[in-house]
Design goal:
Layout lengths: L7 H10 L14 H16 L9 E7 L4 E7 L5 H15 L6 H15 L1 H17 L8 H6 L11 H9 L11 H15 L6 H20 L6 H25 L1 H4 L5 E5 L6 E6 L3 H10 L7 H7 L13 E6 L3 H12 L6 E3 L1 E2 L5 H10 L13 E3 L18 H23 L29
Parallel strand pairs: 2-3, 6-8
Antiparallel strand pairs: 1-2, 1-7, 4-5
The structure holds zinc ion.
Length: about 450
């Protein structure tokens, strides 16, 4: 029997029909050490995203009695510039001194912002865009800010002033300054530094202030606009990630052998470019023909997938789709292949929530089988999932059992769709559920002890 083939066109078809699956799985809130580890790993993953859209990273670690080795991967191999940046981060980590932790955070954050500047500026622009929607502009006066409908009645006062103090401990805000005064300056400052001419130092201050304002808004939502609050917190995540690294380094158990910390890239399988028919119905009918099943028409497809109703049937011709192994799958198979013993939990930090097929893959990997070296209740732990199906998703080739399971799983989805389309009563339809398109992972709070 020939080995199973993974049909990339079927995933492309699925991504067109069910861009988002109905059920977005939620994850149980991790606790204790697991939560701390995931906060740290998610934070490091964020620091490794140097490009804008489409750049993602996954990170895990193996902690032995003599070293801590972090493993990271992207969907593509790291560029020489990225490798040099990560090397520099590692050197800074190894040369960390307890007495200089405050300055260390500033230095590392500067390097991070310089390197990840596209994404940082992207996050700043998202805040300023939200601000524009509520009528804030850089020419607005404080009196006009008071008239905007973003304020919530709250008994807490001085939270934001306190955030300002924590950000700039050497500068005292003048007497009588209010939370709104500080927010006004912060909003205006963001307009100034979010443009291409904005200075790195300005961006650094904005990121720090966002971190503390974001924490204040978590406990006391002074601003009655969830979108703005969330955007502020996400910009602050850069400072949160670096502060989480410091928390790890300050743990005496880690500090003692910070020189033995390693960062190792796990190279992903190569990406490849495929030509896929623009009319994805052709992929479905080619599959139906191979399986001796009746073919379907565009109108049948629209009946089952109401979201297609607004689209005309795509014409002839091909489009390029880049397939790749997603970074969390690369890390997961690496851990499985290299970890001796029977661990029960593998924590993987991600910069974006895992997609629908990665979620399936991570659960397939730990399915018990005869040759399994895993504990019966083993699992991969990530902070979050999303329901998206990406057109270029491709599984790792090792282990072969998981590879075949994914071949079967994708075909099973297509069979289910074909079955519902050709059933006589045609009553089935696959609704789309509205979920957020924003799938960035948020970096959690600061914890005390580490391992
Ligand atoms: Zn994925």
């Amino acid at each position: 029997m020939s080995p199973p083939q993974f049909d990339d066109q079927l995933v492309y078809l699925l991504s067109n029909l069910r861009h988002i699956q109905q059920h977005v799985p939620s994850v149980a809130e991790p606790k204790g050490h697991q939560k701390k580890h995931l906060n740290l790993l998610d934070g490091i993953a964020l620091l490794l995203v140097t490009g804008d859209k489409g750049d993602v990273a996954a990170v895990s670690f193996v902690h032995t009695s003599t070293s801590i080795e972090f493993f990271y991967a992207k969907n593509r191999p790291c560029t020489p510039q990225e490798t040099a940046y990560i090397q520099k981060l590692l050197e800074m980590t190894r040369s960390f001194k307890t007495s200089e932790s405050g300055m260390w955070v500033g230095r590392v954050l500067k390097l991070v912002i310089q390197t990840c500047v596209k994404k940082v500026r992207g996050r700043m622009r998202k805040i300023t865009n939200e601000l524009k929607k509520i009528g804030f502009s850089s020419s607005l006066r404080l009196e006009d800010l008071n008239n905007l409908h973003i304020w919530r009645e709250t008994n807490c006062k001085g939270e934001i002033v306190e955030a300002y103090r924590r950000t700039f401990p050497s500068q005292k805000p003048e007497e009588g300054v209010s939370d709104r005064d500080i927010l006004f300056r912060y909003f205006r400052g963001l307009f100034e530094v979010s443009g291409p001419e904005g200075r790195i130092e300005g961006a650094k201050a904005a990121v720090f202030l966002s971190r503390y304002i974001g924490i204040a808004l978590r406990t006391d939502p002074i601003i009655d606009n969830a979108a703005i609050v969330r955007r502020i917190q996400k910009l602050g995540d850069y400072a949160g990630a670096v502060q989480t690294l410091v928390k790890m380094l300050l743990d005496p158990a880690i500090y003692g052998f910070r020189h033995a910390i390693k960062f190792t890239e796990v190279k992903p399988a190569g990406q490849s470019i495929h030509l896929m028919p623009k009319n994805f119905l052709k992929v479905l009918n080619d599959y139906a023909i191979r399986r001796g099943k009746p073919q379907v028409q565009w109108k049948d497809l629209c009946h089952s997938f109401p979201s297609l109703n607004s689209r005309v049937e795509p014409g002839d011709g091909d489009m390029k789709v880049t397939t790749s192994t997603h970074c969390e799958c690369t890390i997961a198979t690496y851990l499985l292949n290299s970890t001796a013993g029977r661990p029960t939990a593998f924590e993987i930090g991600v910069s974006k929530r895992c997609c629908w097929l990665c979620k399936k893959y991570l659960s397939v990997l730990v399915e018990p089988d005869d040759s399994s070296i895993l504990a019966p209740s083993s699992s991969f732990i990530v902070s979050g999932y999303q329901g998206k199906i990406h057109s270029g998703w491709h599984p790792p080739h090792w282990p072969p059992r998981a590879f075949s399971r994914m071949v079967g799983l994708v075909e099973g989805e297509i069979e289910e769709i074909l079955g519902s389309l050709t059933r006589t009563n045609r009553s089935d339809s696959f609704p789309r559920s509205p979920i957020s398109e924003d799938s960035d992972i948020e970096v959690g709070g600061i914890e005390n002890s580490w391992f």
